[in-house]
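Progress note, sequence design subtask.
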């Protein structure tokens, strides 16, 4: 069973002069549950679309799931259910995740929906009738993980560059799309439109592909081998190749709602670098052959890495977005994702990075400005905003810094510099905090002659906060609304123009206080929770003298008992015999070792480490373990049988 989820669009009037912004995420394969990588692209598109809506543009945001193909059929078989039951389940998981993350998509498309299949068949027939599809035989290396043929040249150590799986050799009779025919046109198009694929490194990557023949694209699979797909309209014995099917979602979603005239081709695709070739080569040539205008921009971001490796289900290093949202809050999590990845580049993911970012930017800089401003307004003015009085140059500087931000933010977003856009706003917030310190309202409050000056300083801070709440509206919609409520401005909608005005808070407005918007994260508690290898692994250690090393007392021991920590799911509590004494050692190795396999294990203990309480259990030392780049961890022990307590020198 397939169902559709659509939200009503506001009407477009015939004389509509608004700019159109149509943005897409990839439609995700349903062979894996959503993780931070999928969440990043989806949250990013949500933020960018909200920013365009804030500017009054006519926006359409599409996401969905890619449900056909060998990979999905194999995953269903492995799960022991029908393909349809399987895709319904996982697609639902994606949709629920996006709903819980507050993603404001206009359309969620599934490639198993009849409305999509019909459009795919129409386009196939059109390209077939035009003579751009032919029947032939092909032999080559096929990668099921990436669902495409790969060339010898692309392989890295014999493996597919995308999935890192070894491909298999296949010979098959297929239908082919005359892709090579469109290579000169595509090359010229990209050369003439320098920002068609961006950032530039990905444009160069595609141009390099186009310098040599790209071949024709095999676009069908025999139904006998891969039944899970859309039939070719002229030959029931073959189903459409999954990429030909999937890419067309960007078009079918509009056609099925009758809005293709309104939104095509103003389309902005957002993807990660794994799928540059299908989007940069297959897709534009398909569109050209179908007689459709090509998209406006292909925007390519890097990978979220976990332990220096792409986060991916096949590498087993994924983090679920809803877990992070539950722990850190939806808006703070969105803020982190946007702030900590430079678009186009890879970024390292870690929970301590989220916590540090939240504390530094949101709890300290923004939270501090809000709390101190509302605190002072309450203390000195009973929470009531005074009329706007005359300003001095220090006030004007803060005002000018904020009023320059809307235009700068538009430029930053257009240039895909999202992290810098955020940093611009934060830097103005920091300058407002500095202004408070310099103006010292607490001193002004002691001097009745300076009452008007105090009002001006408080109002400047309130206006700065109001503007920040508008500028951050697309990134943190819930928190920004709450912020404005705390400022006494109610829950009404805002537009970017609200950040182009100053002294807009009416005199007499009663601001309240509320719970802190961004509570500080207890970094120590977090470090305890993720204690173990990650915490101990300082990357660059300073050179030390032998005396420094001699300060560390290392002793051989034997684990006599091991059990799970009652309050932390990453920790084990070990009892270790050092011969003359017994120690309790709390160790963050639970992801790597079972408690019972450790009993009898010989270990090396740092015996003179100051005791520390980890989630309520005192740890009297540390055991040594090594971890490689792949994340495999091994406890270090003596290679010969030595008495417990022997010193390691
Ligand atoms: O490729 N870092 O689906 P997919 C950043 N169905 N982004 C990541 C990521 C990571 N570690 N891992 C995944 C497919 N992504 C096809 C697409 S489109 C017509 C068909 C995100 O489930 C990123 O957006 O493998 C990447 O391009 C996408 O998930 C791949 O999703």
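Output:
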């Amino acid at each position: 069973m397939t169902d559709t989820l659509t939200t009503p669009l506001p009407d477009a009037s015939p004389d509509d002069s608004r700019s159109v912004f149509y943005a897409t995420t990839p439609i995700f394969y349903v062979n894996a549950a959503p993780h931070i990588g999928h969440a990043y692209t989806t949250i990013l598109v949500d933020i960018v679309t909200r920013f365009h809506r804030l500017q009054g543009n006519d926006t359409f945001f599409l996401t969905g799931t890619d449900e056909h193909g060998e990979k999905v059929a194999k995953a269903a078989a492995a799960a022991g259910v029908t393909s349809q039951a399987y895709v319904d389940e996982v697609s639902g998981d994606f949709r629920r995740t996006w709903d819980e993350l507050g993603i404001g998509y206009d359309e969620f498309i599934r490639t198993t929906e009849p409305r999509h299949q019909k459009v795919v068949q129409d386009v196939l027939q059109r390209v077939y009738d035009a003579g751009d599809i032919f029947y032939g035989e092909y032999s080559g290396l096929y990668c099921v993980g990436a669902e495409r043929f790969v060339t010898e040249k692309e392989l890295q150590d014999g493996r597919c560059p995308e999935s890192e799986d070894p491909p298999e050799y296949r010979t098959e009779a297929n239908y082919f799309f005359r892709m090579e025919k469109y290579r000169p046109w595509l090359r010229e198009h990209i050369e003439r439109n320098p920002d068609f694929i961006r950032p530039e490194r990905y444009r160069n990557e595609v141009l390099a592909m186009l310098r040599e023949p790209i071949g024709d694209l095999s676009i069908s699979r025999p139904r006998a081998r891969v039944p899970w797909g859309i039939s070719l309209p002229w030959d029931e014995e073959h189903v459409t190749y999954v990429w030909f099917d999937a890419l067309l979602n960007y078009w079918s979603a509009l056609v099925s709602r009758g809005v293709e005239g309104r939104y095509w081709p103003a389309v902005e695709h957002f993807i990660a670098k794994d799928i540059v070739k299908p989007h940069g080569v297959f897709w534009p040539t398909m569109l050209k052959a179908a007689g459709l205008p090509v998209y406006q921009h292909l925007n390519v971001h890097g990978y979220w890495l976990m332990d220096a490796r792409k986060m991916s289900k096949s590498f087993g290093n994924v983090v679920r977005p809803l877990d992070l949202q539950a722990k850190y809050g939806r808006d703070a999590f969105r803020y982190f994702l946007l702030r900590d990845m430079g678009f186009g580049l890879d970024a390292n993911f870690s929970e301590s990075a989220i916590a540090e970012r939240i504390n530094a930017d949101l709890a300290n800089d923004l939270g501090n400005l809000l709390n101190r401003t509302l605190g002072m307004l309450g203390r000195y003015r009973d929470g009531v905003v005074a009329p706007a009085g005359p300003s001095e140059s220090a006030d004007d500087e803060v005002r000018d810094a904020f009023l320059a931000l809307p235009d700068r933010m538009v430029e930053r977003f257009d240039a895909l510099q999202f992290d810098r856009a955020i940093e611009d706003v934060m830097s103005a917030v920091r300058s407002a905090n500095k202004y408070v310190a310099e103006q010292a309202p607490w001193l002004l409050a002691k001097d009745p002659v300076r009452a008007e000056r105090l009002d001006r300083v408080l109002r400047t801070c309130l206006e700065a906060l109001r503007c920040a709440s508008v500028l951050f509206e697309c990134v943190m919609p819930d928190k920004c609304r709450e912020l404005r409520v705390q400022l006494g401005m109610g829950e009404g909608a805002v537009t970017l123009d609200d950040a182009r005005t100053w002294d807009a808070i009416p005199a007499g407005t009663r601001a309240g206080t509320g719970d802190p918007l961004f509570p500080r994260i207890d970094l120590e508690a977090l470090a305890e929770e993720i204690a173990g290898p990650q915490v101990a692994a300082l990357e660059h250690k300073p050179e030390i003298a032998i005396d420094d090393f001699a300060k560390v007392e290392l002793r051989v021991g034997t684990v006599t008992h091991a059990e799970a920590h009652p309050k932390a799911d990453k920790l084990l509590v070990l009892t270790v015999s050092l011969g003359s004494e017994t120690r309790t050692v709390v160790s963050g190795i639970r992801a790597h070792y079972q408690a019972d396999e450790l009993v009898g294990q010989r270990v090396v203990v740092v015996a003179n480490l100051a005791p520390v309480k980890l989630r309520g259990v005192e740890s009297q030392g540390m055991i040594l373990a090594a971890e490689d780049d792949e994340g495999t961890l091994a406890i270090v022990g003596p290679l010969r049988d030595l008495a417990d307590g022997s010193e390691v020198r």
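Confidence is low (pLDDT under 50) at residues 1-5, 533-540. Work on this subtask will continue into the next period as scheduled.
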